[in-house]
Amino acid sequence: MPGTTIQAISIYKLLVPLREPFVISLGPLLAVENIVVVLRTADGHIGYGECSPFLTINGESVDTCFVVGQYFAPALRGRDALDLAGNLAEMDRIIYGNCSIKSAFDIALHDIAAQHAGLPLYAFLGGSNNKILTTDMTVSLGPAAKMRADAEQFQREGFPAIKVKLGGTLEEDVARIRAIRAGIGPTHPLRVDANQGWRTAANAIAVLQALGEFNIEHCEEPILRQHFMELSQVRAASPIPIMADESCGDEHDAARLIQLQACQMLNIKLGKSSGFHRAQKIAQLGQAAGLTLQVGGFLESRLGMTAAAHLALSNPAIHHCDFDTPLMFTADPVVGGFRYCPGGVIEMPTGPGLGASIDEAWLRRAEQVHF
């Protein structure tokens, strides 16, 4: 369609300080360093996408994304924005991997496609706004006393579940969880995420068995992602259900994990899957296998997290949402998007498309390039 031809592409660096360092077993994060992609079509539609590259997970940085995005822009300019699969295939033809920057383009393309269809993005994806989305809130890795204080604060603020970053020694992590449980009580929903920090299957099993008494809902990525063949051993020996995260990037990873019976749960992120096209394939595989699914993210603003929330409404097997990182920002550059409500409830935009954009004042002062 001539009207939906991609006419102009802009790429921006979005830099926002965090309120305090966000620490996981892979290292500390001090600031938001994201990419925003803006696509414009001949008929006036504007699509927004965002990615939050993560050096230690998807091997990308804000600088690599800014450069690789400039490989994509001239190739996509002049193509039909509605050819979603074809546009992703073109990006795959240009360069292998680089799933984070691909996701920013894919989100912007889906924004345009949903606007063109006159549908909220979740409806365009085949879903409906028929369930209440709630986000957990994450306790950063640190001393047990500080982690307990943070968990108590999040409980007071009404978050329905608390996620705790772990990945230290058995003694350290048990002390952390014991302190948190002493602060929030034995029944408040609690989840843990080792971010591969326990490394080996034997070590992970020992820690998980030691944590079994603390009423933990699930554990994300207990061992090194390269050791995914051993994840089924961890699942079999763990009293806590296992959720694959870093080891599940695309639908091929999901299929392998399902075949191995490696986990009971999958964590889907647009920045790992190159965007909606592959994320939905992961969700469909997980649903067919009877797995429970979560949608999460990296350090996206409410724009990228709104995209994730649309994905969460697209499949009934998606039960958990991890959409808390925008609450850690010192400023909010997003216009529209989902809204945080009491009790961790997410209120979605219902107009056509993604329903979120970036404040023009932020874009004007950002490092940028245009095609």
TrEMBL record:
Binds 1 Mg(2+) ion per subunit. Its cofactor is Mg(2+). Keywords: Isomerase, Magnesium, Metal-binding. The gene is ykfB. It comes from Hymenobacter glaciei. Residues 144-241 form the Mandelate racemase/muconate lactonizing enzyme C-terminal domain. Belongs to the mandelate racemase/muconate lactonizing enzyme family. This is Dipeptide epimerase. It holds the Pfam family MR_MLE_C. Its EC number is 5.1.1.-. It is an enzyme of class 5 (isomerase). InterPro entries: Dipeptide_epimerase (IPR034603), Enolase-like_C_sf (IPR036849), Enolase-like_N (IPR029017), Enolase_C-like (IPR029065), Mandelate_racemase_C (IPR013342), Mandelate_racemase_N_dom (IPR013341).
